[in-house]
Amino acid sequence: MHTLRYILAVGLFFLSCYLVFDLVVHGFNVFVLIGVIVGFLLAHFIKPKNSEGYDSDIIDILDFIIDMPFKAIALALRSLGSFFGRGGLDLD
């Protein structure tokens, strides 16, 4: 089950990366931007939280890479919330 979730998370991550590339090459589109954000968020939440049974550096690297866009999105939303004076948003 963990392997299937990792495969799905990596697939969503690569799809979202392609959509970022599409935004840059073909111009801005709101629906593609929403797809990028949703794809990265889903990849973070689908990925298994603990790596029990996996004693591999590759899994650790995958965890880090998949979590980077989520952390960037969360930081942006928290900064936006603190900019408007509400003390930030708590996503995790």
Written overview of the protein:
By secondary structure, this protein is an all-alpha fold. It has one domain. It has helices spanning 2-26, 30-46, 57-83. The longest helix has 27 residues, at 57-83. It is globular. It starts with a helix and ends in a 9-residue tail after the last helix. The relative contact order is 0.13.
What is the element layout, followed by pairings?
Layout: H1 2-26, H2 30-46, H3 57-83
Order of helices and strands: HHH
Compute the number of strand runs.
0
Strand content: under 5%
**Main sheet specs:** none
**What's the Cα radius of gyration?**
15 Å
Q: What is the molecular shape?
A: globular
Report, as a whole number of angstroms, the end-to-end distance.
Answer: 23 Å
State the domain count.
1
Helicity range of the residues?
Answer: over 70%
Briefly, what is this?
This protein is mostly helical and 92 residues long.
